[in-house]
Amino acid sequence: MSTKTLAILICLSSFYFGISQSNSLFTAATENYNKGEYTKAIDKYEQILKNGEHSAELYFNLGNCHYKLNAIGPSIYYYEKALLLKPNDGEILNNLGYAQNMRLDAVEKMPKTDIAQLYSDFVNILSFDQWAYLAVSLFILFVLAYLSYFFLRFATQKRIAFIASVMSLILGVVSILIAYLQYQDFKTDNPAIIFSKEIKITSEPNNNSEVVFTLHEGTKVNVLEKLNDWKKIRLADGQTGWLLDENLRLLKDF
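^ thats the sequence. predicted structure below, dont judge the formating
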């Protein structure tokens, strides 16, 4: 056996051993959860994270454990991370709603026009990668329908194939455009969860500036910029301010 072949076999063995170990930890953690041993379950789930494994199910279970321990910030944090990997999942949204009801801060979103709300509801039916997959499928359908137009013999069939090809092309272009716009929004959006029990938000990045408002554990914010150890945040209602970055955790830090 060559050295190269041996190295490949060792890598494959390590890979499968890692998967097996993670599966064993996940099963053991779930058993701890079912027994009400939430702290033990958290330790095992976090060990899986340290092994480099990420999944919506893993973050969802971590959220459940912290929720059972009445840890508002961590429970919302992990539910939100699960939602990033599995958007619009009903079970995650439901549990996230319960956790959000435990927050002290009630931040109302800035109102949208009817047209803006309709657009938001439509484009968020799918995530940007799902829109991209849909676009690829529609472009494949366009090619097949276009080729069928030349090979079909009857006029009615040709007409149907032509219409199908045009519609597929139009819908494919629309899908790829929505995917692009959503991806741009995803890149500019930098959400985080407040982890401190209570934190004063200042008008400038220093401890001597004016306090503009106060936030509590579990509140979701969007990070706009960073200056040394300070981060500028914006709430859903449009308010902005600065806080030390030790008081929050970013959601997209996979």
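The helical segments are 3-34, 38-50, 56-68, 72-85, 90-100, 114-123, 128-151, 155-188.
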